[in-house]
Amino acid sequence: MAVLTACLSFTAAGASEIRIGFVNGITGPISETAKELETLTAGYLEMVNAQGGVHGKRLKLVVRDDGYNPARTATLTEELVEKEKIVGLVNSAGTAPTLSVIKSGVLSRNRVPLVGVFSGADAIRGPGSEEIYHTRPTYGQEIRKIAQLASTLGLKRIAVLYQDDAFGQGILKRLEDSEKEFGLQVMAKVAYKPGTKDFAAQARSVESVSPQAIFLMGVPDSTYQFMKAYDAPAGAAQIYALSFVTPKLLADTAGDAKARGIGISQVVPNPNSATIPLIKEFRTFLNTPYGKGITPSPVTLEGFLNIRLLLDAIRMAGPQPTGEKVLQALSGMQRYSVGGFQVDFADGNRNGSNFIDIAVVGRNARLQY
Hints:
Belongs to the leucine-binding protein family. The protein has 14 helices and 14 strands. It is α/β, with parallel strands linked by helices and about 375 residues long.
């Protein structure tokens, strides 16, 4: 009888709430970014709950920390999907962790979507990844934009910092394409192992070839640590980084002077813009108790876009949402406006946006567009 009561109680709780999964490296080399994304995602769901939830049901974020370890990501995702009965995942990060989820087949087997991965790798797009809905362009598109700008400025001799794994190999492949297209000369390809904290050796290797431009193609924390170790005179080379690098964390780690002048590719509009409704929503959220402590940045705006998009799909799925229904809702979004930011997942497309820009870090870690 006690067992039956417990089961009925669990069923009742499950029926009155909608569960969303979050698997990310809350510890490990991307911890700062992952923690901020967790805080943002949980805070937004709590705000929506305070407004009545979705279809009268409370939203619950179910969190797992994979430590940015691909060996753990698929197992934890399977736990959320099959035991916690989530209807979708949101704001994941990393090429290798996402690849492990794709190879496990857990999303395709259970028909549960993942909305928003902080990775632009080609390896996590295409066959086998149909349940993943991307809101950012590929790294190839980001690298091409950076290479095009460097070439336009006459910066032909470059050095590249990359991570020694599948993510990094994908970066090098796309860099080769841009190298040929824009006539760049790669003077040094400097690798680091995931989890590296001391970048003194990598910094010396880069400095030794006197590049005109440096492409920092590592994960956020590695980019921050490299800049902390980098000791060339200011202006010795123009430095560029990928879109998931947060200016404030960069400045906090490396110092404001070293951060200033770095170009960062952007996959969402200026988070300080006053013209786009999505950004107005984002700024309003940050000014509530639910957004307390979250720094406005392109990374947090992207995280906001992802959870906002997933909730739109859950609403479209009706009062009894399932992973399958949410998938159908997402797949039906053709030129869909998320507060004025357009995504398109129709006709089997899973790369929802091609938006790209480059901003430069200015004083007090503010981005200049």
